[in-house]
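Fold tokens
===========
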Amino acid sequence: MRILSRSILLFIVVFYTQIASAAFKQPLRGKRAMVVSAHPLASDAGLKMLQEGGNAIDAAVATTFAISVVEPFSAGIGGGGFLLLRNSRHRKIKALDFRERAPLKATKNMYLDDKGKVRRNASINGYLAVGTPGTVAGMYEVHRRYGKLPWKKVVEPSVKLAKDGFIVSNRFVNAVKRRKKMIASNQEARAIFTRDGNYYQPGEKLVQQDLAKTLQDIAANPQSFYTGRIASAIADDMAKNGGLITNNDLKSYKPIWREPVCGNFRKARVCSMPPPSSGGIHLLQMLNIIGDTDLKSLGWHHPDAIHLMAEAMRISYADRSEYLGDPDFVKVPQQQLINPEYAKLRRQQIDMQRAKPSTQVIPFSKQTLQNFSQSKPS
């Protein structure tokens, strides 16, 4: 059993030079189980579930809630995400979409001013930037189906971390510093992340009593987040500050089980998250474009290897700009985009002697892409 867990999705990318590579630590390996997250306290929460007889889902859910306490700047119960799981008994892979949803009152021009120009940061900070949260519903849905331990038990570690507090790290402090302007403009945020007007320093303990009470309510009844006291508090706060989320948005939120996107890369079967995530299609497109090129023989950081990967990424992102979206609202040509024959045609556009200007890396027309709908993808 192997668990790779992050609330919402965690991608860790390590860059290092040939000179520094000798100091690179070898990855840890385990024969029975492993819990991985961005914070040791969150990983400990997941590990505790395994030690108490829980399964991978119990560990993932506990880790997710715990990381919402110790790393609120990267994940939280106010967010959402994607989950990919493999049921070893039935040998099936499933994908759960619990991303945030646009409020019912959202409009296509909500981030534009009266002159039709983009309102800077309106889609990033503030009440209009908030989508209907999906984390709590997503975690409860996957636990309800596949968890082993009681729901209250898997939420318990996060309650304890919020109630008793934890020692903040340099990473936490630096993350808060990058958001100083936003925190300063919000009274509730200041109350949480400052003490006597000062920001927390490494080594100090952060206690979040209100969050602990919220998590206790979720532990007792996860639906309270969408129909109970918490839901009312969210809707009232939104109404008072120009936000769009209402009780109706929260009440109607439901996670969606989707079919994973899969393809073959050499001898491996690769499965990932389907739309509305673009990551799975991107990954398969890039792998298809790389094809049989022996990157290993080229050597680490070889210019040709880097060039090929960079061009494959740019092609994939060009397609994303035109074709990727939420399948509940738009038709995504998924099978055409991950078709190996389509990748071969795209590969022919790469000049291995020079980088093409980004303005010239454009998506194929719908008509051209349609030609690949009859061919069987990998």
Remarks:
- The longest strand covers residues 81-87.
